[in-house]
Amino acid sequence: MAINLTINGQAVAAEAGDTILTAARRAGVYIPTLCYHSDLMPDGVCRVCSVEVKGQRTLCAACCYPVAEGMEVLTHSPRVRESRRMIVELMLANHPQECLTCSRNSKCELQALAREFGIQEVHFKGERKMADVDTSSLSVFRNPEKCILCNRCVRTCEDIQSVAALHASKRGWDTTIVPGMGDELASVVCVNCGQCINRCPTGALTANDPSSKVWDAIHDSTKHVVVQTAPAVRAAIGEEFGMPAGSRVTGKMVTALKMMGFDRVMDTDFTADLTIMEEGSELIQRVTEGGVLPQLTSCSPGWIKFIEYYYPELLPHLSTCKSPQQMFGALAKTYYAEKTGIDPKDIISVSIMPCTAKKFECDRPEMTDSGYKDVDYVLTTREAAQMMREAGIDLPNLPESEYDDPLGMSTGAAVIFGNTGGVMEAALRTAYAIITGTELDNVNIEAVRGMEGVREATVMVGELPVKAAVAHGLANARQVLEGIKNGRFKDYHFIEIMCCPGGCIGGGGQPQPTSEEIRKARIKAIYDEDEAMTLRKSHTNPAVQKLYEEFLGKPLSHKSHELLHTDYTPRDRKTVKAVKVKVES
Amino acid sequence: MAFYRAHILVDTGTPAVLKGAMGMKSALVDEIKKRGLDKEIKVVETGDLGLHGVGLALIVYPEGVIYANITAQDVPEIVEEHLLKGRQVKRLVYTGPSSAVVDGAAKPRSREMRVILEHIGVIDPTSIDEYIAHGGYEAIAKALTQMTPEDVVAEVKASQLKGRGGAGFPTGLKWEFTAKADGENKAVVCNADEGEPGNFKDRLIMEGDPHQIIEGMIIAGYAVGAHEGYIYIRGEYHQSVSHTEKAIADAREAGLLGKDILGSGFDFDITIFKGAGAYICGEETALLESLEGRRGESRMKPPFPPTSGLMAAPTVINNVETLASVPRIIDRGADWYAGIGTEKSKGTKIFSPCGDVLYPGVYEVPFGVTLRDIIYNMAGGIKGGKRFKACLMGGPSGVLVGEDALDRRLCAEDLAPGAGALIVLDEDKCIVDLMQNCAEFFHHESCGQCVPCREGTKRILEVLNWWTTGAGSEDDLRLLEALGETMSLTSKCGLGQFAAVAFKSSLPLFRDEYLAHVKDKVCPAGVCAMDKVLEEVK
Amino acid sequence: MCSESCGCSSDIVGIIEKYDSDKRNLIPLLHELQDELGYISPEVMETIAEKLGTTVGQVHGVATFYTLFYTKPRGKNIVRMCNSTACHIEGGRKIREAVSAALGIAPGETTQDGGFTLEVVSCMGLCGVAPAIMVNDDVYGNLTPEMVPNILGKYREAS
Ligand SMILES: Cc1cc2nc3c(=O)[nH]c(=O)nc-3n(C[C@H](O)[C@H](O)[C@H](O)COP(=O)(O)O)c2cc1C
Ligand code: SF4
Ligand code: SF4
Ligand code: SF4
Ligand code: SF4
Ligand code: FES
Ligand code: FES
Ligand code: FES
User: Fold this and answer.
1) Comparing C-alpha atoms, which of B86, B100, B105 is closest to residue B57?
2) 3-state secondary structure of B492
3) How far apart are CA C123 and CA C68, in angstroms?
4) Mind telling me how many Å the CA of A45 is from chain B's nearest CA?
5) How far is residue A75 from each of residues A9, A15, B524, measured CA to CA in Å?
6) Where in chain A is the domain with CATH 3.30.70.20?
7) Annotated catalytic sites of A, by residue?
8) Is residue B276 classed as helix, strand or coil in its secondary structure?
9) Do A583 and C60 touch (CB under 8 A)?
10) CATH topology of domain A211-564
11) Rounded mean pLDDT of A576-585?
């Protein structure tokens, strides 16, 4: 039943369960927010969304106040505007006002509010909270001084990722968001996904940015710098340059990277196709030879760390395939080095990823099968865009160019790795061919597409019903893993899991802000990219075929195992090692 | 119930305990044993007997003789003479005025009307038998056997009882909402987190007559269809916890808690929950968070607890005093209760005057008495014969009133009483200093989740720190006024909404005093250090 | 005996299990463990989190929110000095100064011998006898600075 209210005198029809904010947004009325995030349950703590509701003693927080029949709402009355200004002034008074040198400069929600409310002076002149920056993590840096205690990171990590690495400690003015028991982030259970960064409104959470080292490498004439770009980057990096979400900029991005001075610009999509060859073969082997099923995908390093921490007993389900980034890294310093005659020690391998967990992955001790660190530096989409800006590159207006050989060619099956359901679909396209010996007529496997947290489908591969499931976001992954443990998935063959909501297009290194709409737009761009390809099945990639002919032999060969597969480490969740407790009498 | 020929009540109110009441009591017990009288005479600890300025006191029943200003040394003589030989020890008998206890019942001091406090100081709070002997648990017998839950709600509504925790929400209505709300596992929660400076009435009820609360909770549970009750007692109230624990155990033993109470088929039980040091947990939704094992951070409202409370189940939350009023209402009827007080404030209210009054303490009065009545007629006026300057009504979350409020009536129509604290200041006290102290309280107690309160309480404290040390400027006055307005309008819960109210109420009353600090850098009362001024001069 | 590897001699796990390993009971559980151990150490917080099936964050967040919980060792005796309104106007500051002077420490500190921890707290409901302090569970009110050394002396001897 519709609920009728007025907002600023205008009649608005809302639905039961709406908050004032949702009703207002649907009616096209703007209300500022700060702690609210569309991906999260409202917390109602910043009070920036306060509005006047007739008959109420106090203002009401629009983000969490339910609509009621006959309600009269004013969103910008004098009392409301005065209060909002005061609230933002209070936040600024306890904030290092160093926007000019802040990584969020011009993309910060607090800064934007200060501008929107016309704040020109902070009247409170008192103490400001001081804290050290936590740079312990390979992925996420924390600057508590810039934290406005909106709890978005806390809610993200707990509700979306079910990791709960961050929480509020102490109280009142002393309240601080801390990992574990006030420890450094690196010493607590954190899967490095960066989802917290993506939802942080300010510069309090940032990624560990190696761009100055990458610049150094580019400018070092003794180094040969190769760069790979992940599938999801091309569907999002345009946003950093003001283009709408879902802009496809693959060719422009390649041009930009060449302009920046990378020696070779190649594509993670190539190794995504390779992953399908290896992982698909592994699946067929498990099915035919009676291996552990369901097989779980292994291309998302945040997810890998998650299962290592929480479900080490299920590690045998994980595919042994490295992520496409690491396959690329291993090949860059072997196959590519051989082919080009460059000494692998002079090769610097850089990747551009939607993901902050990849910064952690490239540092794992296992990831040195080439004899060197397979991937030297991981840049997020955001950091790559920043480097482009520094290089004076106007991405939207660049001409397009092609990726370089020999690790540059890819199929549509590879690009869809960038979103949830994509790895599954790509694997099914190839599995169909291998198992039935015929090619799919319609390669679009709608059954595994979509945005639901956990999706299940039975796909007929010839005579064989393949039972598949897809999950994205680690809270959903946890559900699936519990399901595996209690037998719910026992007759399933293959389950795709991606750490981030929406898959890599929603990764922790992607342009801010993020929302379901933005992620959907990026996914659409990914599927469009797939449609536009002439080759859409991994096994049809001629460069991959050539790689097998010239170098690897066949999928799951000895050499493949050496370079492209890995094993996993159960991790201890205890952040503090057992020490003797002093008992007081 | 064993039969004793005499009862001796020992005043064990906090002031008495501080003067050594417990030592005197054990001397008494020993002496009685020594004389072989322990089967005949029972020694009972009561709460505060309401006798002020008389040192240690005890009362011998059935005669009702009061001995005052006694010491442990006097004990043998009293036992020997009075209890053995039946002769009063004249030199120790108390004959002074305002004796609260005569003939076995608490006699109201001038204009006092003891309903909830009726048996405090009379009965042994650790004895369920005595509670029952004084008519206790008759209300649940009546409610459970003669009334439907709807009748009970109707009766409480008709009594026009309003919440005594500060907000004054009509209790019957709250119960009706909860009774009508859909949901399993409804709960009744007694808010005994009393933390507002200046309030100590709930403590007295728990320490002096805890069964009333239990009885009130059972009735509430019956009315709304709840089977579990929780009493959230602040962690610092050790004796409240132990007396209430004992009372619950005894009630359970007597079949008044647990399954099938009094054969009515109604099940109800109560758990005590000890707070852990956070004033904010007195706020009902923060209290619920705490009960569920989390940080005491208030929830967004709506939904309110009657719809979604403890573990999202419909929940009644009431103050100790509110629940303690309920048995009397059921017993004596809503009409009787609604006949007490004023048009808009029915019944009695317990006040706790403290600060610069001669007899700080707990006084129960019908709504509508004047502030002067309480301060001068009951609490003995201002200490040292000084002049009254101001009263912080309800504590730091309340409002400050000046001399012109003395003849205002304490009721919803006139001067809203808040939870009952009356912190009285004499002429020598400084308002700016008082507000600095209140600011410190809120700064310390803000839960810290919402911006206006977390950041606002800090800024208010800073400015008041400046003013009381001779720093700061006049601009800050306007700034704080505006800040206070924003905090009241936008804070997530009552703590932040009321944190600046006392300050705002003090401004028009004592603007000159503020200006003296802020402009002239002097503290007229000579209380504030103003040491920054000296620094500047140097 | 504790079956955990933390090596303490208390039956921490037994206590936790007494609370049905239910995370709703975190606060009563922390009370009891603190009574047993003196304070809530990181190791204990980890054990609690594991046994209650909750996060270390919830346990740490709660333990640091409430002033009656200690996450660091504290003195044998806790002196709580009220700093709220009624005590303040009745001369609480002088009492606090006298206590600090007698113990030679500032609020928030513990004496070197571990005998006393000194704290400034909010109203303890003793406003009727302001100014007031509590030493452990004992109440002292209507104080004057002269009374302080005597009161503290009792605890000094006892320990
Ligand atoms: C900051 C704050 C502290 C409060 N403290 C108490 C308290 O200690 N005791 C209490 O009964 N109510 C307290 N309240 C009021 C409760 O939120 C609630 O209104 C009350 O317990 C309801 O019971 P009543 O209707 O019987 O008064 C407090 C409210 C606020 C905002
Ligand atoms: S976080 Fe935002 S407001 Fe703070 S310094 Fe950075 S850009 Fe400025
Ligand atoms: S990186 Fe991921 S796991 Fe780590 S704190 Fe952020 S959201 Fe949580
Ligand atoms: S770190 Fe960022 S997201 Fe987390 S509470 Fe602080 S400002 Fe909010
Ligand atoms: S008003 Fe204060 S106590 Fe209440 S939620 Fe906000 S910060 Fe917490
Ligand atoms: S956006 Fe509503 S309170 Fe923060
Ligand atoms: S970036 Fe997180 S799932 Fe790929
Ligand atoms: S103000 Fe000190 S105990 Fe209440």
Assistant:
1) B100
2) coil
3) 13
4) 4
5) 10, 19, 45
6) 140-207
7) 279, 282, 299, 319, 358, 361, 366, 504
8) coil
9) no
10) Rossmann fold (3.40.50)
11) 34
Q: Is the pLDDT of residue B212 over 90?
A: yes
Contact A583 C8 (CB under 8 A): yes
Class of domain A140-207: alpha beta
Q: What is the mean pLDDT of residues A62-79?
A: 98
Q: Is the pTM of this model over 0.90?
A: yes
The mean-pLDDT minimum among A165-174, B24-33, B161-170, C137-146 falls in: B24-33
DSSP single-letter state for residue A159: I
Q: Tokens in use for B10?
A: 């020992």
- In the three-class reduction of DSSP (H, G, I as helix; E, B as strand; rest coil), residue B415 is classed as strand
Q: What are the residue ranges spanned by the domains of chain B?
A: 6-92, 128-338, 348-426, 431-518
Chains that touch C (3 or more CB pairs under 8 A): A, B
Tell me yes or no: is domain C77-158 CATH 3.40.30.10. yes
CATH superfamily of C12-65: NADH-quinone oxidoreductase subunit E (1.10.10.1590)
Interface of B with A (CB under 8 A): 278, 295, 300, 302, 443-452, 454-459, 462-463, 475, 479, 482-483, 485-486, 488-492, 497
- In whole angstroms, give the CA distance from residue C39 to residue C31: 9
Can you say how many angstroms the Cα of residue A388 is from the centroid of all Cα atoms in its chain? 21
For residue B141, the number of C-alpha atoms closer than 13 Å in the C-beta half-sphere is 8
Average pLDDT, chain B: 91
Domain with CATH 3.40.50.1780 in chain A: 211-564
pLDDT tens-digit readout, A208-222: 999 999 999 999 999
Is residue B152 pLDDT above 90, yes or no?
Answer: yes
| Pocket mutation for ligand 2, best pick of A94, A98, A99 (most atoms within 8 Å of C-beta) | A99
CATH class for the region spanning A3-89: alpha beta
**Per-residue pLDDT at B537 exceeds 70:** no
- In total, chain B counts a number of residues equal to 538
Closest to B452 (Cβ–Cβ): which among A42, A47, A93?
A47
C135 phi and psi angles, rounded to 5 deg: -115, 115
* Residue intervals in chain A for CATH 3.10.20.740: 3-89
CATH of B6-92, one of 3.40.50.720, 3.30.70.560, 1.20.1600.10, 3.40.30.10: 3.40.30.10
CATH code reported for the domain at B348-426: 3.10.20.600
Is the CATH number 1.20.1440.230 carried by domain B431-518? yes
Quick one: which atom of ligand 4 is closest to the CA of A142?
Answer: 1
The alpha carbon of residue C60 is apart from the nearest alpha carbon of chain A, in Å, by 6
The pLDDT > 90 percentage for chain B reads 75
Q: Which helix (H) or strand (E) holds A461?
A: strand A454-461
Residue showing tokens 């503020």: B514
Domain boundaries, chain C: 12-65, 77-158
pLDDT at B45: 78
Residues of A in contact with B486 (CB under 8 A): 82-83, 86-87
CATH class of the domain whose range is B128-338: alpha beta
